[in-house]
Amino acid sequence: MLRFSCYQRSWLFSRTIANRQLLQDRLCQQLWCEIEGEKLCRSKLNPPATGTACATGKWCMYGECVDNSTIPLRRDGGWSPWTDWSKCSRTCGMGVSAQNRECDSPSPLNGGRYCEGESRKFRACNIKSCPPRSKDFRTLQCESFNDVKYRGGKHEWLPVISDGQPCSLFCKPKDPQFRFSAKLASKVIDGTPCRPGSIDICIDGRCQAVGCDHKIGSGAQEDICGVCKGNGTTCRTVEGRFNQLAGSGYVEAAVIPEGARSISISESKPCTSFLALRADAGTYYINGNWRIQLPGDVSADGTIFRYMRKGTLEKIIARGPTNAPLHIMVLYYGFNFGVEYRYAVPLHDKKKEKEDAKRHRLLHEASYGWVHGGWGKCNVHCGGGIRKSLRMRCIRFYRGNISLVEDIYCKGATKPRQEERVCNVHQCPIWWAVSPWRTCSKTCGPGLQYRSVRCMHQTRNGTTAESPSHLCPSDKPSGVQNCIKKACHLNWVFGPWSQCHALCGVGYRLRNVRCPVEGKCAHKPRTRKSCFKGSCYDWTTGKWGSCSARCGKGMQRRSVTCKHRLTGKTGNTCNTGSKPASARECKLKECKKIDVVLETVCNKNKYSSKQCQAVLKYDLCSTRAWLDLCCKTCQDAGRL
Fold first, then answer.
1. Strand, helix or coil at 8?
2. Quick one: which of 453, 461, 604, 627 has its CA closest to 553?
3. Partners of 42 in the β-ladder
4. Which of 208, 250, 316, 588 is deepest in the core (most CB within 10 A)?
5. Rg of the Cα atoms in the chain
């Protein structure tokens, strides 16, 4: 049975296995299998299948080796009673309270099922609003780290919302010179809003949806009128469109009344102008004071406005209700192709209904007016200049449409003066201008590189000019730096070549080569070269033989042999040009002169031609013996 169990679970292993029984006392707790062809066992920590034999007359049941006649009863787990609700995580603004229970009444046994359902549940508590001007709950959590050192220093922290991790505590230093954010806690305190203006809250590090009935996960939603689970019949929707094609500076498009909900403001088409939001008192919440801000959430008059921008298309939304009137503004920068707005107000405001009806009726009546055709270029690049409005054009507004018409139609409208606007008020930039580094002063080893460093500034007309160094911000960059192209190598020190290590033939010479500093010299020269001591073969001569004539001129001969100097072996590599003579003339005494007359003509030599030439050479024809041997040669030479 054990073998069957091992094969039954072989899918848990990546290779073919063969069973092997190990750890008899724990056999029913873990199944071990041997890898075929290897001397090792592996386990996936799973127990053998129920009914696997573990000993004689025993089998595995729920991790125990028991008698095979015993079948333990299975027991399913049961929940304990819920604990009391925990203390609320917040005193106001909606906190979280929790209840817990355990699967121990009873605990699962002998393969029984674990309890189904949640072991923990939450509910919202202390949902009443916090007192006016109370600090945001996430802000308080960031401020709790003000006295804790971070990267060696302390900071006053402000909250930052991470879109990807809204329930982690991210904070940034209040001091604007520090431009970073830090994750100071992996989880915010339960009950912290996931995002500003949202009723969804963080619980155990996760954002949980909260219904308008303040129940976690209920899915209940407010209608457009702000009524929880309402049907939208307690309010009316006001919709409008602002169609002024062009304008100058900030122009009011509409007024959102106090108590408005479900507010939506959007541009009809992408354009170069900008949406802005202004309070009744003149304070701007979004894009005021000629400054365009980044998209994000803004708190204004009792609600949170979300400013969104995709390319040049803008939108502003808010849940409401507002506690004061708000003015929708358009900051003209070129043209605007229309602004659409929508909000809901309570039905009981009859006076407001009449005002809105009149306002929107006027939008559909034809009207004419002057607009300037945008702005000209600024007369300077920096330091503050002037740009003027372009030629005035007459435009017609009718039923939401805008069109250019002849100037005569605007005869009754006051033509504005050409406008001027301050532009490029930013300070002319000043900076350190550095040239590229020059070539290193040394081809190897440590050297120096130089570059020019000058303080430069942009003039108002856009050109650049040099400024005194003390006017440039920050420290002056260095004009010199260390450099090294490559490591320098020392020269090798040579000794003299030795005598040739050979008595003859090819040998070798040696010399000592050393580096003054170990490892600092490159490409070591050779310390050995071949040499030649001359051929090992030389001519050896024997003793001269006796003279060939007893009187007069004769010849002496000796042996001349090419032999190896060391081995004595004969060879044929000796220099023939230096070969010693093997014969020489000799003369023991003068011979008595005998006049002889040849009676016959000699026709043939008795000696070889080579030998007779030697007789002729050494003038031996006058000797009778040689004459007989070489008569033909002597006769032809006239030596008879």
1. helix
2. 627
3. 33
4. 316
5. 59
Among the ranges given (113-127, 339-353, 511-525), the one the predictor scored with the smallest mean pLDDT: 339-353
pTM: 0.45
Residue written as token pair 């192709």: 337
Per-residue confidence (pLDDT) for residue 25, from 0 to 100: 64
Structure tokens at 447: 């050297």
The whole-number pLDDT of residue 353 equals: 55
Supply the DSSP string of 9-76, one letter for each residue. Answer: TGGGSSS-EEE----GGGTTT--EEEETTSS-EEE-SPPPPTT-EEETTEEEETTEEEETT--PPPB-
Mean pLDDT computed over 518-526: 85
Lowest mean pLDDT among 7-16, 512-521, 619-628: 7-16
Nearest to 368 by CA among 414, 430, 431, 331: 414
What is the distance between the alpha carbons of residues 258 and 326, in angstroms, rounded to a whole number?
8
> Average pLDDT for residues 112-117, to the nearest whole number?
89
In total, the chain counts a number of residues equal to: 640
Tell me the β-bridge partners of 99.
121
Q: Is 183 within 8 Å of 150 (Cβ atoms)? A: no
* Residues 544, 560: Cα–Cα separation, whole Å: 10
Task: List Cβ<8 Å contacts ≥24 apart for 26-33.
Answer: 27/2, 27/54, 27/60, 27/65, 28/52, 28/54, 28/60, 28/61, 28/63, 28/64, 28/65, 29/63, 31/5, 31/6, 33/6, 33/9
Q: Angle CA(212)–CA(213)–CA(214) in degrees, nearest 5?
A: 85
CA distances from 275 to 245, 311, 317, 374 (A): 14, 13, 12, 17
C-alpha to C-alpha distances, 494 to 490, 516, 526, nearest whole angstrom: 13, 11, 10
Of the chain, the percentage scoring pLDDT greater than 70 comes to: 89
Cα–Cα distance measured from residue 104 to residue 117, given in angstroms and rounded to the nearest whole number: 14
Residue 511: HSE in the Cβ half-sphere, 13 Å Cα cutoff: 15
125-141 as b/e, with b when 16 or more CB fall inside 10 Å?
A: bbeeeeeeeeebbbeeb
DSSP of 422-444, one letter per residue? Answer: EE--SPPPEEEEEPPPPPPS-SS
